[in-house]
Specification:
By secondary structure, the protein is α/β, with parallel strands linked by helices. The chain contains ten helices and twelve strands. The protein has two domains: 242 residues, Zn-dependent exopeptidases (Aminopeptidase, 3-Layer(aba) Sandwich), CATH 3.40.630.40; 100 residues, no CATH class. The longest helix is centred in the middle third of the chain and has 27 residues. The two termini are 45 Å apart.
């Protein structure tokens, strides 16, 4: 009896030590906060305020909220004072610390020739992608144009010209890896900008921002509001205004981190936001009219639980023979929140899906296993 008692006690002590060690060794979640512009690059100008100062004020306030209220999160700033950094240096900082999320903070403006310059208002959040409108392209051009301040920009940025529309075609092929996480986070930021800061919602948008393209993690760029509008300039230049904008981004980050932790604890990579999604698969070989991946309306029998490997999410359908699939076939997809989420393999056996996962992982490093029941995604 005594031997059994001491064995149990020893086992309890060992388990406690192991748990404590695992906590100590756990990697902090690293969020990189990038205050746009700085130093001899003022950014957009208002009647009194400078964008670089507004950006820094919001960035520091956001960082303090995270540092003071969230355990297990490390905040890295690209700048904490009025200094100039190139776009590449900002991306390098984020990649060097192996950031888990990148937030670039900017303030919007319109050209001085715009008739709507003093009346336009609203906040927007941007993710990497190909612009779908001239307005989106102009925002990207303005933010990317800071590379002209560098003497060797043509060499350093691989021939990229911020004012050349053709240069932005490259972003069509650079948007896939972290698109879904970035869009989900951007959507949450926009909701908070409206509810917490009382901003006009200009929506989640996409364009070719160099700094987002060069960060190897989920990333967003926020445009707080328009400094060219005197009313919005006063708001953004005030302590209370900056605190509201920082609080908005912070609230969205809290949700993002909560989702991240939940999925990590479930043994999954962060790729989804909670929702229930109908599955479409090629089981019945119903071909869509535009020669995209074959789908059926509803594929699965009641009560069946099975697994697939998700490897890509896009806002549009791809042809069944798309080169983006890197030879994987057959590929299926399901729709969720306006996104087409592409999967490979299918099995009710965990060991079998693990084998398929390894195959996909060798081609798409952010691939992960998902679970379905009754034709719907299970979280």
């Amino acid at each position: 009896m005594k031997h059994s008692y001491f064995s149990r006690r020893l086992l309890s002590v060992f388990m406690a030590l192991a748990l404590g060690l695992s906590v100590l060794l756990a990697k902090d979640f690293v969020v990189v906060i990038d205050a746009g512009h700085g130093g001899h690059d003022p950014g957009s100008l208002g009647s009194k305020a400078k964008e670089k100062n507004i950006n820094l004020g919001v960035a520091l306030k956001l960082g303090r909220l995270i540092e003071n209220n969230m355990q297990g999160v490390k905040v890295v700033y690209t700048r904490k004072k009025d200094v100039y950094l190139t776009l590449q240096e900002r991306a390098n900082i984020a990649n060097k610390v192996q950031g888990d999320l990148f937030i670039s903070i900017h303030t919007n403006s319109l050209d001085k020739k715009s008739l709507n310059r003093r009346k336009v208002a609203g906040a927007s959040t941007w993710t990497l992608g190909l612009h779908r409108s001239k307005e989106n392209l102009e925002v990207a051009k303005r933010e990317n144009s800071v590379i002209y301040l560098e003497n060797d920009f043509s060499t350093r940025y691989e021939g990229f010209d911020p004012n050349s529309t053709e240069s932005y075609i490259i972003f069509e092929f650079m948007q896939y890896k972290h698109m879904e996480q970035s869009i989900n986070f951007a959507s949450d930021i926009q909701r908070e900008f409206v509810s917490t800061a009382g901003r006009v919602d200009r929506g989640v948008r996409q364009a070719g921002f160099w700094v987002l393209a060069k960060t190897s993690m989920p990333a967003v760029l926020v445009e707080l509001d328009f400094i060219c509008n005197p009313t919005q300039e006063r708001f953004l230049n005030s302590e209370s205004g900056q605190e509201k904008m920082a609080k908005s981004i912070y609230n969205a980050f809290v949700k993002y981190k909560s989702d991240y932790d939940r999925k990590q604890n479930a043994g999954k990579r962060v790729e989804e936001s909670p929702s229930s999604s109908a599955v479409v698969s090629p089981d019945k070989k119903t071909q869509t009219g535009d020669s995209n991946v074959e789908v059926s309306e509803q594929a699965e029998k009641s009560g069946v639980t099975y697994y697939k490997v998700q490897f890509m999410a896009l806002p549009r359908k791809l042809p069944a023979n798309s080169k983006e699939f890197k030879g994987l076939s057959p590929v299926e997809y399901y729709k969720d929140g306006g996104m087409y989420k592409y999967t490979y393999g299918k099995s009710t056996d965990r060991d079998e899906i693990q084998k398929q996962y390894k195959k996909v992982k060798s081609l798409f490093r952010d691939a992960f296993i998902i679970k379905f029941r009754d034709g719907k995604r299970v979280y």
